[in-house]
Specification:
Layout lengths: L3 H22 L12 H9 L34 E5 L4 H13 L6 E5 L2 H10 L5 E4 L5 H9 L4 E15 L8 E2 L1 H9 L16 E5 L4 H11 L5 H8 L4 E4 L2 H10 L3 E6 H6 L5 E2 L1 E2 L17 E9 H6 L1 H17 L10 H14 L3 H6 L4 E2 L13 E2 L8
Parallel strand pairs: 1-2, 1-3, 5-10, 6-7, 6-8
Antiparallel strand pairs: 3-11, 4-8, 4-9, 4-11, 12-13
Length: about 400
């Protein structure tokens, strides 16, 4: 045992020497210059790099673009179509109908002119009309009436209108206002109520009929929500207001009054734009002849309504509405309206297919439907698509 001990010592020394020679011939690993955990740093320096794992593909959440609505051969369609139409969509409906007839439709689209509130009431209480048009969605109480009558409404946006506020063409004021200032101006007694540098002269207001689409939009959407109940009530009947049911008469009154302030729809404004001075809104327009920009704040959708049973049971209504949605953009300029943006157009197609109970085509385009919570004054859809839309003088 004593003889073996020195041998073990020699073997240990030889191993240490061999280890020293190996370390001396190997490149030195850099020591970390700083850091509280030297051992962890050394481990990660010598550990192999982890394999790169590509991220999982993301699920697209944008609205699909390019859904194609199909319709029956117009030559085979039976019967006429009765439309209750408000003034905003009269011209566009006539243009689409003319093209539909050119495609071979043998029937007639009979259009009766009506006010918005009246036509929506008739949609919910009678089956007189196959289609009605309006510039607003159904209110919750109207939707409830429709459903109590077993008439599930189908709302289809097809174009956009816009509100334009104008003054006398020679009004010297530089009128570039925010939407809030427009509200205040509409309720003011005289011009200086809005800005002290403006004249102490009374404002005289001119509006289309309160039953019109533009006035309905203005009071319910533009004035009703931001202002309190007192201001909202005053907005419907402000002082020094003249109501006209005739557009030509309205133009003449504005041109004859230097203190005129008027609200018009975009269609009416374009028909006589040289007779007015347009008020700039939030810097989104730059001149009386400039087109409205995409971010113009006073745009509103124009809708066609039918009922689910009418859509499913009347081939001529189904075909005309599909044709209308697919072709309306071709005619909006001629009709002096504004087109839907791509997301709005695809939503309209999805609403149509959902009411038609056509899930296969929806699946083909990857549309995921979810049931939204009920909201006040929102389109009465049963399903919605999943989505990823001044100076002074």
């Amino acid at each position: 045992m004593k003889k073996a001990f020195p041998l073990l010592i020699l073997l240990a020394l030889a191993s240490l020497a061999a280890l020293w020679i190996w370390r001396a011939g190997s490149p030195a690993r850099p020591e970390p210059s700083s850091g509280p955990d030297v051992l962890a740093t050394r481990f990660f320096q010598s550990a192999p790099l982890p394999a790169r794992v590509p991220p999982p593909p993301t699920t697209p959440t944008r609205l699909p673009v390019g859904i194609q609505l199909t319709w029956d051969d117009p030559l085979t369609l039976p019967g006429d179509i009765l439309v209750g139409s408000t003034e905003s969509l009269q011209s566009l409906t006539d243009l689409v109908y003319t093209e539909f007839v050119a495609q071979g439709y043998p029937g007639k689209v009979i259009r009766e002119e009506m006010w918005g509130d009246d036509v929506l009431s008739l949609l919910c209480t009678t089956d007189r009309y196959d289609i009605v048009s309006a510039a607003r969605s159904l209110r919750p109480e109207e939707l409830e009436i429709c459903r109590r009558q077993g008439r599930e409404p189908v709302l289809l946006p097809v174009a956009q209108g816009a509100l334009v506020m104008v003054t006398h063409p020679k009004n010297p004021l530089t009128l570039t206002l925010t939407t809030r200032q427009l509200q205040e101006l509409w309720l003011a007694d005289q011009w200086s109520d809005l800005r002290t540098t403006w004249p102490d002269t009374p404002i005289r207001r001119y509006t289309p009929a309160p039953e019109s689409d533009v006035y309905t939009y203005y009071t319910h959407q533009f004035l009703g929500d931001p202002l309190d109940d007192t201001h909202s009530t005053a907005a419907k009947a402000p002082p020094n207001t003249t109501v006209s049911f005739d557009f030509s008469d309205l133009v003449q009154k504005i041109v004859a009054d230097p203190n005129a302030l008027a609200i018009l729809d975009y269609h009416s404004y374009l028909a006589a734009r040289s007779s007015f001075k347009r008020i700039q809104v939030d810097g989104s327009i730059t001149g009386d002849d400039a087109p409205l920009s995409e971010n113009y704040p006073l745009q509103y959708p124009l809708f066609l309504y039918t009922t689910q049973s009418t859509l499913q049971n009347k081939a001529q209504v189904r075909a005309f509405l599909a044709f209308y949605i697919m072709h309306a953009e071709r005619f909006v300029d001629t009709a002096q309206q504004l087109p839907l943006n791509p997301a709005q157009l695809e939503t309209s197609k999805i609403q149509f297919l959902t009411a038609l109970d056509n899930p296969s085509l929806l699946r083909e385009f990857g549309v995921v439907l979810t049931t939204p919570p009920p909201q006040e004054d929102t389109p009465p859809s049963t399903a919605m698509p999943a989505t990823d839309p001044g100076g002074e003088n």
